[in-house]
Amino acid sequence: MPTQMSAAKAWELLRAGNARFASHDxxxxxxxxxxxxxxxxxxxxxxVVLACSDSRVPVELIFDAGLGDIFVxxxxxxxxxxxxxxxxxxxxxxxxxPLVIVLGxxxxxxxxxxxxxxxxxxxxxxxxxxxxxxxxxxxxxARGEGKSAxxxxxxxxxxxxxxxxxQRMPKLAAKVAxxxxxxxxxxxxxxxGTVETLATHGGVQEGHAPAEMPPGEPGTQ
Length: 221
Ligand SMILES: [Zn+2]
Prior knowledge:
The protein is of the alpha/beta class. It has 8 helices and 5 strands, in the order ααβαβαβααααββ.
């Protein structure tokens, strides 16, 4: 059964989960045998997250979420491709997930490699080349805005991937336009465990305080 939760509510719950994680107060919700049994008959995740594959960015852990809570897609450098957009389309259009998050992170190797390549540091000749190809436009855009710090390249890249998702996926764009789906660009900071919000689109409103979480949603025990 599709979730009826709003994008803003989903983002509020995930931000609250991240606050718990960052302050060493994770509840590890929705991990018991009852939850597993319930999920046998279907899933009803509250968000789809496109994140970097980096081992330091485990999506469910950093949002203190459990089984069935988040539909996760991960590629190195959170780069897009047909399979990635197909997966996100399934989540948004078939599962009716209300929130899409593009999650970059601090100290991203793919972003660093692309920046190095732009500066003449060499381009890999194997499959890793695609990482350079798909991160480089973000770095060039950041530089065009006068940015030179790696942190800012990472922020610009997550924001650019979110923009590209909306531009390339017409059904998603329509849902963002009418507010039924929200898209967030965010960046996970490895050092302190927090997720910073970079940009929001559609049905996501900023400035909400973390709400009380009703039973059965992420963050409950
Ligand atoms: Zn990364």
